Fold these 3 entries.
Entry 1:
Amino acid sequence: MRFCIVTPCRNAAAFIDETIFSVISQAGPFGIRYHVQDGGSTDGTVEKLDGWRRLLNSEFPRCCEGIEFSYASEPDRGMYHAIDRGFRACGTGDILAWINADDRYMPSGFAVVGQVLERWPDIHWVAGRISIITEAGFQKHLSARLFPQKAIRAGVFDLRHFPRLAIAQDSTFWRGRLWDVAGGVNADLRLIGDYDVWRRFSEHADLVTIDATLSSFRQRPGQLSEGLSAYHAEMDQRLTELDKLTCDRVAAEYQACRTEQERVAAGFSARAVVFDPLAMSWKLVTAA
């Protein structure tokens, strides 16, 4: 099994070491292909990347079956252009994901994802719980949430209809063949690239929630995700009027459901993988 992970970055010297270490320290029966696509940093990021390249070409201890690390630094049109370049540099892989240069994966995250996708071949993409970490080091773990395929496809998780409910990119992993059939990321987008690709993924497969913390998202001033007005402006430019009407209708249906039975009847059930402490193994359930 091969994980292909991409990190887009620009002037990320403050946190890039944490992000890289969280990838290369993953332990389990898999290989890791990791590429960092830098947008032309001037703050020492490139020097750090070159240091990691030299370190990983030496006798750096590995807890997995192998690590292939690379980086490139060149001007780009934005984060999603960098991500597209990164995956092209990585080549093919069984499991894909990207993580931004101030976030980090939790230990054993890859092992959990690998076990789930190996055990259930009909699961094509997954999202786990996240924790939020501040610059001061405070960490808060969030509860697992379900994301019904019908609602993702309609685009209701847009931080407008449900402001506190969105698919966390840093905890999301998918099979390489889903990436290929969905067409990958739109390199021309600046802010809504993940929202766009999730909608296209949902045309082909349901998102399965893993009830385990897979990543940490860092909250800090100046993030692209900080200003939602620009995020929604780009979204409104891209969506058709039919898209917007469908989104509003499905969001109203979803919000009107008060019980699990109502959500199931309305087509808003979703699958989740939870850990059974008695059997000491994961199990797949359907809930709403």
Entry 2:
Amino acid sequence: MLDHELAKRYFQALHREIHFWHENGFRFNDVYVGGGTPTVLPKELAKLLELIQNLFQVSTISVETNPNHLHESVLGSLQEAGVRRLSVGVQSLDDEILKEIGRYAPYGSSEQILERLQATQNRFDTFNVDMIFNFPHQTSDSLKRDLELLKNLQVDQISYYPLMPSLTTAGNTSEQMGVMTFERERAMYQMIQDSLMPEYQPGTAWCFARRPAAIDEYIVDHDEYLGIGSGSFSYVNGAFYASTFSINRYIDLVGRGLSPITGYRPLGLKEQIKYHFLIKLFGLRMSNHGMQKKYGEKYRRILWKERLVFKLLGALTETEQDYQVTKKGLYFWVLMMREFFMGVNNFREQMRAGSRSEYT
């Protein structure tokens, strides 16, 4: 149940943190609002976005939401706030799967979700639907039906993530949905490719769009990013930073004019180059010139094994200008990014462990 008083204090702290980073010289031009349900208080979110646009030269605002928030009071508020891209977490259009993962009761049946998706079409420059594949009880027929329903709606963009439980949630996943394996993952991803392409073209390894559009993963377009809010992550000057997952501690730190960052992990040069290689090619293209400008010729020596192996596998092509992921290579980046995000999820669980009592 939403604690309105705590939510109000949290939004006030978000305002303070945004001022904090502005006063410390940070500038950014794209905003991505995600994690949890940021549209639960649309008026507060609109005020927050207004503050950001007053302080920074913002070109694009993207917001995540859930199917039960696709109604006029939320959508109208987001449009007025300048949101250009809306992403809705659907995950599945199979009612049995929705029940298994606990989304049927709070977010509605597949029929209700489809009606809301249809009503939201064409209200934003980009309307993205987040889906998940490789649920334990998901069949090929179920996945095929989901794909056909989304294609019939002609939504702008479809992001199909592989199921990525953390070590902590893997046990809960098994209890709720059955034992998860990766045995069918590649075949299901191939089905997604075959169904969506060429009408939909990949913008990342798991994001497909009917036309050029803003993609889900801001980490592809931006070498550095600043996370704001409790539980957020940043990547700046070759290091990862994590803000406290305790909302009460977050409010306290920001209220005292301090940074809420409580986790720090610097990357060595080799790690930075390999991270850049992973992320840029997740977005299907990596500039040779960009790598040389950032790291010099040493990046070629550091990445010689990766470049050779993926080229031999037919997953990667290389020219003077850039490296590009082939259609055959898409699944390799799905696999690697799945492992990367599962690692991030495990870290989140460790960070969140100390603050669980706040939410129980």
Entry 3:
Amino acid sequence: MNRYNELKSDLEKAESNMERQEIKKEMNDIISHLRKRTFADPDTKKAQSNIRKRLKTAYKAIDKAGIKGLAKHLRDYIKPDNAYGLYYSGATTWDITR
């Protein structure tokens, strides 16, 4: 972001249209690059933490109900996706309905 601010200052001092165009192009390149990057949303991080807690509670309840195989399967196949979410990597699929 420092480079962008430098370019902004340079744009104000630019003496020719060609120089302004080059500066604007570099500024647009920086903006395009930033738009492509993903930043963790703190609310999403909090949500993932809450989901992990709920999953642990569910695993304990499933174990207590005597379905230890299912609890183990879910523990093995529900994994973080490194973007503050979770994904299921097992072969079995299911629909959750209300």
